[in-house]
Amino acid sequence: MSSTSPASLLDLELQPGRPPMLRVETTDGALSWAAEHRDALRAIVAEHGAVLARGLGLRDAAETGAVFRRLANGLMTEKESFAPRQIYSDGVYSSSKWPQNQPMCMHHELSYTLEFPGLMMFACLGAPAEGGATAVADASTVLEALPTELTGRFEREGWLLTRSYNDEIGASLAESFGTEDRGAIEHYCRANAIEFEWQPDGGLRTRQRRSAVVRHPVTGRRCWFNQIAFLNEWTIAPEVREFLLDSYGADGLPFNTCYGNGDAIGEDVVQLLNKVYEDNTAREPWQAGDLMLVDNVRTAHSREAFEGPREVLVAMADAVRLADCSPTVEVTAA
């Protein structure tokens, strides 16, 4: 079906199981089209949570960065990253470096920070031979589909993210904090309500408690907003999990998630979360030149396993403060 309501102003394809899609025809180039249709694109995202624009013909990082900057209200510099990225220009990154045979399950970008992107932008410069879609799922629908006893506990307690930084796996201190200076890292942690402990080998372990359910800062809709499943040990491939446990121990995993009181989250809970996400997933294989915009609070996104080269550029934009999203647990920064 198509929609030409005032909220969209563009012909929009809405099909079950697929993200909202626009088929674009432009003779003046992607940047001119983005400038002309900026407000309409943002209106579609506000109404539907995401949109995939096909036919823009994006070809390189410079053009893509210009489109990102034209569509955003301001690009963000990533902090507290969980995996390395290539930096193309200020606020323009590669997708996270993650084994291509392992999916990155549904999550909301930087949902463990006190200031996170309200808008995610993705551009495909090179589509993989198979798989690799950036799929999406509506966070309010997911919340409603989860057992109320489970979501009630997370609303009361929040969720706890534990991290162990080292030089061998995941993002380094410099990649996550923008510096290796201990004083600067400690200052950042205190200002962002992160408990920290330096290890004898120079590594860093951190803990931060956050809300699992928030209200959208514009609509007030309750959203399941977190990375509980994605960053949990039970989402890691079994052979990789076993290797990490053998190498670093249960307390030294690069990242893990718990209930807000520190209790372990069972494998059954993580499987349930991922099943509910899968039941509510919309996906469309990338084509070179595609552009996708995602409301990061309302809509979770994933990266599916793939074969062959894949080049997807990413920008995080329109910063939102956790304090403006009615968090259910108190977070106090020093």
Structure description:
The structure is a single chain. This protein has 334 residues and is an alpha+beta fold. The chain has one domain (1-334): Double-stranded beta-helix. The chain has 8 helices and 21 strands. The protein has helices at 30-48, 61-71, 139-145, 148-157, 173-177, 182-191, 238-248, 267-279, and strands at 2-3, 12-13, 21-23, 50-54, 87-89, 92-94, 104-107, 115-126, 130-131, 136-138, 159-165, 195-198, 204-210, 213-215, 222-224, 255-259, 281-282, 291-295, 299-303, 306-307, 311-321. It has a 7-stranded mixed beta sheet, with helices on one face. A hairpin with a 2-residue loop joins strand 5 (87-89) and strand 6. Helix 1 crosses helix 2 (61-71). The longest helix has 19 residues, at 30-48. Mean pLDDT is 94; it is low at 1-8.
Structural descriptors:
4-stranded antiparallel β-sheet; 334 residues; Double-stranded beta-helix; alpha+beta; single chain; disordered N terminus
- State the oligomer: single chain
Estimate what percentage of residues fall within beta strands: 25-35%
Sequence of secondary-structure elements = EEEHEHEEEEEEHHEHHEEEEHEHEEEEE
What value does the Rg take, in angstroms? 19 Å
Helix proportion of residues, in percent? 25-40%
Largest sheet: 7 strands, mixed
Query: What structural class is derived from the secondary structure elements?
Result: alpha+beta
Please report the first level of CATH classification, the CATH class.
Alpha Beta
pLDDT averaged residue by residue: 94
Number of strands: 21
Total helices: the number is 8
InterPro entries: AlphaKG_dependent_hydroxylases (IPR050411), TauD-like_sf (IPR042098), TauD/TfdA-like (IPR003819)
GO molecular function, one term: dioxygenase activity
Domain TauD/TfdA-like: 32-316
Protein name: TauD/TfdA family dioxygenase
